TrEMBL record:
InterPro entries: Bact_solute-bd_prot1, SBP. It is found in: Cell envelope. Belongs to the bacterial solute-binding protein 1 family. This is Extracellular solute-binding protein. It comes from Streptomyces virens.
Amino acid sequence: MPLLAACGGSDGGSRDGTTSGKDAEKILPAYVASNVVTPDIPSRNGSAVGFTGKLDLADLKTSVPKKLGKGGRVTVMSPFWGSPPKDGNAYYKAMNDLIGVDVVWQNQDGNTYDQKLGAVLASSEVPDVVVVPGWNMTGRIPSAVIGKFADLGPYLSGDAVKDYPNLAAIPTDAWQRSIFGGKLRGLPMPSSYVSGIVPLYRQDVFEKEGYEVPRSCDEFMALAKDATNARAKRWACLDMKWTAFNAFGVLSGNEKSLGWNEVDGKLIHRIETDEYLEALEWTRKLFAAGVVHPDAELGKSNAADPGPKFAAGEFLIYNQDISQWWSRTAEQATQNPEFKIWGMDFFGHDGGDPALWAQNPASIFAFVNKKASEAVIRDVLAVANVTAAPYGTKEYMATNYGVEGTHYTVKDGVPTKTDQGNIDVMNAYVMIASPAATIAHPDFPEVAKGQVEWQQRMGAFTRKPSFYGMQITEPARYTNLSNDFEQLEDDVVRGRKKIADMQQAVSDWKSKGGDELRDWYRKILDENGPAAG
């Protein structure tokens, strides 16, 4: 993924490296907590804030008392999943009127966005704003970010951010991630640093069958064998590799820099650890025991939605993004009232406390064209100050739900999108900047409470690795070094390859550049110091 720079030099800053410590402090915006709305559950141990109450439109607060936009026109290229709405729709019109800026969307297919991004950044025709998700920060894109996008520091560093109170309330960790090439270039979408992946399970079936939630790998295996009856088309789980990594305390693999950590003075990569191999071996045993649903045998090629088979009881446990806790609940609420999905706490493999590792606190960024005038930059910040409004405000409702009556209705304190809302109010304005991580489900407040409390419990066991929060750009020569490991992991756990094959791959990785990369990261650590906390 991406990166930063500490050294000076040209206007663009260094093309690789990072910026942290005192250098970052000079760049980062001041943090001023918002007091416009008080959450029902405050953030703790890195969790999101939670809201469990019903929504009262009459009680919505105002976080942007006057329009900051000056009526300019701003073009935005952003990934979009689904069919983009027509230009000039009621949502876009209402948002532009609220902000005082004419935002023109250039939505691109999110599934092929990396290709479009590469082409646009290589051209001279770059829109005013370009949204770049962290998972697209590969190849040459990080250096293009440094070369093509503006330094927002003069507008946001230190007390300057106070002109935009909702941006000032974005957590400092998320801004730290927005430093590219030694400059504050990104507008972030903050997220909790607690694992976003949860082992989700059928709580209703567990209660009916008298199953206990497992607290160790052995207990999980015993439960899985007990719950599996292939003749009756019931299996215990899907591929539990991600849960295994957490049970064995393996460093994160979702971003290159998070895979490294200093242990006893030496930098170690996740793939070099015994825990990594032990997690793969335990996951392999689940497959070998026949407790994994046959669909999961297909690995990544199986893109089918697991929801219907989970609802039908074909398997009882799977790991997936925390958002599915609510979405599966909402899906089944009317047709299957007995259905109850819940999140299982991670366990240490041996029954002790889990050793969990922090994820990065922002993963999607909006950047402003380096050629943009001050007027355009100010208008973009006016947009961001509205889209970063906290839950419980008029601006949040406008950004996330659109226009009352046209895009959503509220019944019994629960907002529901209309058909028009599901067409117009999609992933557009929310991509510019967001408030601190927030979980709110007025339709299922017990789920919101469950999600936040899960994050708080897991956050208590979550540590920050050496490079947490740093935006690091690896030299291009190492770009593809680790590319084959995910496929190899999947082959090992399915019995198609052996642990010995993985050990050989690690040995090859070291000789082909892994050891050199270690030295490169060592230098960053020596110059910048480890992540705080």
